[in-house]
Write a structure and sequence with these properties.
Helices cover about 55% and strands about 0% of the residues. The protein is mainly alpha-helical and about 190 residues long. Among the domains are: about 35-65, no CATH class; about 85-125. The longest helix is centred in the C-terminal third of the chain and has 27 residues, at about 160-189. It is flat, with a radius of gyration of 35 Å. The N and C termini lie far apart (about 105 Å).
Amino acid sequence: MRGAGSNKRPGGWRGSAAQIAVGRAAIIKWNRTRHLQPKCGAARKSDYAPCQNLAMANGRCHKHGGKTPKGDNWHRPLWPHRDAPGANTKLNRKLNDLQRTAAKREKRVARMSPEERAAHEQWQRTHKPGSAAERQRQREFRRQAKESRLLLSAEPPPAPTPEAQELQKLIDQLKAELLELEFRKGVFA
């Protein structure tokens, strides 16, 4: 409801005709290329079809983990930039959240039975932070290194006996004769 002396137009601030035209052109341009942008591939809860929201850098939208940090330090907290508006408030909120999460974790671990605690610690040792692909790459690297160590530590094959050397010479001579016969057959056929 407008006041008695108000001179505001209904519908809020609109700007000049030039500003409206610039905004409209920008929206039209964006809508022409929006369908070409990468889409989130996460499954929707409603029908399990791909999400189709615009994807962020990691291939997911903001609802399906697009804002989750990635790389080597994905599991570390992201601190607000000191020049950001309300940086102190954001920092205090982040610190309080971290303290609350740590207290919940300590309570949960304290309630565990010794067997559950041992299983939890074993899981922590075997599941290092990082992406599944990086952990798989590290496992493959360790497997190849183990195979290489086994190959290098194995005894070298024994030197061929004189009989084996004589047989190898005969095999090589017969192969040469066979090649010569095939060549002659091909030339004179």
